[in-house]
Design a protein that fits this description.
- By secondary structure, this protein is of the alpha/beta class.
- The strands form 3 sheets. It has a 5-stranded mixed sheet, with helices on one face. It has a 3-stranded mixed sheet with strand order 1-3-2.
């Protein structure tokens, strides 16, 4: 944002309170519930994906229970990694390992993925990108003779994955580790006070106009 880059913040179930501010724009920041991009003649639909999760909306107590269990497991995992680090043993992510065993990779679309892709077809989008399940996936399916692509960008907490667009197509990026050549001072990240003042000035300027 400080460098003039347009940022679209796509809301999800973990930040549901922000959905009431949909279409809000502050400078280069926009809060949206979904986004359609047209790149090189192809339409891409981006959304979080929780609207296709029946558990989230029909049995919220179960979703909250799952979030609580995940939180407790994270606390235990952090404590375990401190012990492993003391003995110079490689750290582990328990939740990631459990999901890998429970969710075996399949080339065919599952129920959730089919619902997302079918909705993308109705929006005339050949590619749909979502998150929610946290599992990085890149699949293609054929509907009425046309290829449609489902891409789940995963997350930056367990899998360290993201979706990137270059060379006229989307790619699933896997982060393996820090780049030794890139030092923290090269990132040019503004200080908290500088960023806060910039946002306040931007907000005041926008309201005056």
């Amino acid at each position: 944002m400080e460098k003039g880059v347009q940022i679209f913040y796509i809301t999800g179930n973990h930040d549901e309170f922000l959905r009431k501010f949909g279409l809000t724009q502050i400078g280069n920041l926009r809060i949206v519930n979904q986004l359609v991009l047209e790149l090189d003649g192809e339409r891409t639909w981006l959304l979080h994906g929780d609207i296709f999760d029946n558990i989230i909306h029909s049995t919220k107590w179960l979703a909250k229970l799952g979030a609580a269990v995940y939180g407790l497991l994270t606390i235990f995992n952090n404590a375990l990694n401190r012990i492993l680090k003391y003995f110079r043993v490689k750290e582990i992510i328990i939740y990631k390992s459990l999901k890998r065993r429970l969710n075996k990779d399949k080339s065919d679309l599952n129920r959730f993925e089919k619902m997302v892709v079918n909705s993308a077809v109705l929006k005339n989008c050949s590619t749909v990108i979502c998150g929610h399940t946290h599992k990085p996936v890149d699949k293609e399916t054929q509907i009425n003779g046309k290829i449609f692509r489902y891409l789940n960008c995963g997350d930056w907490v367990e899998h360290f994955t993201a979706a990137e667009y270059y060379d006229r197509k989307w790619h699933l990026f896997y982060f393996d580790g820090p780049d030794d050549e890139l030092q923290p001072d090269e990132l040019d990240i503004p200080e908290d006070r500088q960023l806060y003042r910039s946002l306040v000035n931007e907000l005041i300027y926008t309201n005056i106009l």
